[in-house]
Amino acid sequence: MPNSQEARVTEWSKPHPSSRLVVQAGACVPAATPEAQTGDHWVEVPTEFDAIMLSSYGGPNGQDDVLPFLRNVTLGRNIPDERLEEVAVHYREAGGVSPINEQNLALKAAIEDELKRRNIDLPVYFGNRNWDPYFTEAISNAHEENQVEGRPTKIFALVTSAYSAYSSDRQYREDFADALEALDLWDDVQIDVSRHFFDHPGFVNPFIEGTRGAIAELVKENADLDLTKDVEVLFSAHSIPIKDNALSGDPDEHDYGEVGAYKAQHLALGGLVMDAVKEAFGTDVPWKLVYQSESGPAHIPWLEPDINDYLEEISSTRKAVVVVPATFLSDHMEVWWDLDIEAKETADEQGLGYKRVSTPGVHPEFVAAMVDLVQERLNGTPASERKALTKYGPGYDVRRAGSSQGSGPLRAATGGLLP
């Protein structure tokens, strides 16, 4: 194994896209455990795993990492370094270090503690799509350290993304396939992927707690606030291309209509939070789904309104806003830069009071929810008994064919039916 950070980055890197689709004989799902190979929507029989892989986006660990990291993020899009430097400034301001790395390590430790509390004896590995430690390293280590003679190593990929969309679902599953091909482990490792969990109470309740607390703070600071007209709650989602939203979700999962799965799921979360707000304060508080972090070329339309544009729009009718970072699991770079700096600055310029709700992070309920996802599969929990608060849940264990596809051609992906 490589010894230094420099050596690790050299040996372990983001692999090239997989050139093939591989399934076991008689199976429907590439590189899946036997229990998932049937292609059923939910795996409702107990499944034995050898390891858990906490799977995240990744982020640079220093100034020298920033551009290589952004090249990984935009691999295949031929974006010049000059354009990448426009985004790099966000990381440069933080010393080139993304907070996501430390936050994921804290989540990993909390998950390990919760597993021990439940007497679940499984090692947890940590891997990223776009930076060290890469999926290739995590999968290789999990395989080498947990081999069972006569059968493949079984890994449960716990993905740190709650929603349906290409970048939050299928792209992870494609990268798992890329890693298996790069390691030549198609026949030696099986990877099942966690379901979507945007409406799991352990994900929703921390947002409810934070939103109620933020509104209470506003009322304490200004007793004359009329919650029915002076305050608006903004659920800030990571914007994605409109076309990707239309293609998000599983084709036979639900009838999302023209809304699209990604947007519909965020609206559902917002509805849950605001129902709880009404229960706490006895009145309806206005709310809106807005977007942040758009990062594509100008000719490709993305979901709108942008949070900064909307703050300017409502500045004449509202006195304060509460911002809920609805897409995000932790307070990483996009939360810090886009909400705590840019959106806060816009609100200040417009004379709006501003409160930002914390992400779930290592909130005990959220950590418990992540282990719930593991335990569902270990126990084969029937879908009807899994925790989900909306008509859209619980998400599928095995994605449908063409699930959460992006604008490009479909390619190899684990955790779902072909293609």
Write up what this structure looks like.
The protein contains twelve helices and eight strands. It has 419 residues and is of the alpha/beta class. The protein folds into two domains: 5-197 and 363-385, 3-Layer(aba) Sandwich (Rossmann fold); 201-356, 3-Layer(aba) Sandwich (Rossmann fold), CATH 3.40.50.1400. The strands form two sheets. A four-stranded parallel β-sheet has the order 2-1-3-4, with helices on both faces. Helix 11 links the parallel strand 7 and strand 8 (353-356). Helix 4 (100-117) packs across helix 12, helix 5 (135-145) crosses helix 6 and helix 7 packs antiparallel against helix 12 (364-379). It starts with a helix and ends in a 40-residue tail after the last helix.
